[in-house]
């Protein structure tokens, strides 16, 4: 290639445009680091023991915490998992091991569409489904909303990891005289178990931060919510309510709550990736 | 989620020879049919839930649909006290913020995807992509928090300069209160950028090397190869990522509610406060007194549902028809 080709103008375009793409990446990364750094700074400086152990103080008084919201979020997630995980697992097994043709296509496509339903619309749906007949907001309604939101990802990730199990393993099971269901439960699922667990943990992390569907299902509560049929507070809703309030004390609590929520999500997300990496190591080594 | 897996054609796991010889009763006794039916119930429950969702949105919006018909979408009076409901300010706000957000996010997202797919060494690219995907895991209420306490104070310092020099353009004039279409769009752009980057990068990476080599052999520069061979080859996947982002931006609730100002008006200026469909539902749903008010809000939910479903379906369709590989969004 001679030195004069490509022409200088195109060489300049080349350098400028490539530099621009690098600049775009830097911009996105700096936004990410700014967000995480600011949240860490504001959140950590607003944290104290009372935040985890006390319920909210009356307006205007300092002190108090969001113990009720932390408990509320954990209860909501437990209920959501109890609804979303079994259905997701069963559906995933069905798609990977049994379904074929139009049935598989319909379920898969519908699942992806359900995954794209705006969370606020899911809130409306569960409001008409659970809150209207029961006449009041409840942990149950919030859990149902988050549970339904969990199904699509639980289902699709289970399906993906099951399909990744080599056909030869299944044939080996059948050749040994195991029935299809025995093969599924003793060979296929154990081979994919790390992936399936990872998918479910990431799924829980995703719905843990959902706010909109909780606004008109779990609503909120200044006190602890006994049982499952009372309105309950939750971390995301507390962040929202405190952030838009006019009180500085509450703004600090919102930052602290945001910090706790995001740390929880990131820890889950990193642990689940470690589990997946370990699973890969086991299956290859 | 792994991608290679989806590329295999639909081969349901079935030992066809064996199954044919067994009667239904034999399979039931061996437990296979029981497992089949139970898992089938799990799979079909998705269809039941989606059906119920559509039915509930339809039934619980009937009063508003009957009272206002299609005018609901274009009338701009939203007056709960007198029972008059027109959704135009919300529709307008939703469209303006989503389009502006995409206008900001597409070049930046595509640029980053090109850098990560074509220029960065694979290891660095994977590490950076992992970080960027963390952005997608941040809950929207936290974006709202950042929007209120970090972005808006920054904008208060920046916007006066913009208005000083560009204030004569209608979209920049007017008093700036912090909360505005503009603030909401920036937050939305930050929220959808990770989607565009992560999907586009995967599509770009999967473009066959032969495409690049052919162009490079003709003496093209790296940028020419990328822009004229690689990007056009991957355009369906990139369009898919854009439609997915659009669907997400249209339905995004909390972050927008916290920074858009929540004023039911239609303004040409992007610096003015506004409202979106999702935001008005979030704000007024629990306060809705009377059935008509509630049904009007649920009809807004129905509109949002239909529109986001259309863009999601388009995105999936684009990605499904891409030859050779698929991308999971």
Describe the secondary structure blueprint for this structure.
The complex is a heterodimer of chains A (285) and B (329).
Chain A: H1 8-46, H2 49-53, H3 67-98, H4 101-116, H5 119-134, H6 139-163, H7 167-175, H8 180-208, H9 212-215, H10 235-243, H11 248-284
Chain B: H1 4-7, H2 16-21, H3 24-30, H4 32-59, H5 62-68, H6 71-74, E1 78-79, E2 84-85, H7 88-119, H8 122-137, H9 140-166, H10 181-205, H11 209-217, H12 222-233, H13 235-251, H14 254-259, H15 277-284, H16 291-321
Antiparallel strand pairs in B: 1-2
How does this structure look, described?
The complex is a heterodimer of chains A (285) and B (329). Chain A is an all-alpha fold. Chain A has two domains: 8-46; 52-284, MetI-like fold (Orthogonal Bundle). Chain A is built from eleven helices and no strands. Chain A has helices at 8-46, 49-53, 67-98, 101-116, 119-134, 139-163, 167-175, 180-208, 212-215, 235-243, 248-284. The model of chain A has no long low-confidence stretch (mean pLDDT 91). Chain B is mostly helical. Chain B has two domains: 15-59, no CATH class; 69-321, MetI-like (MetI-like fold, Orthogonal Bundle), CATH 1.10.3720.10. Helix content of chain B is 73%, strand content 1%. Chain B has a two-stranded antiparallel ribbon. In chain B, a hairpin with a 4-residue loop joins strand 1 (78-79) and strand 2. Residues 1-11 and 323-329 of chain B have low confidence and may be disordered. Classes of the chains: A mainly alpha (285), B mainly alpha (329). The interface between A and B is large, with 112 and 103 residues.
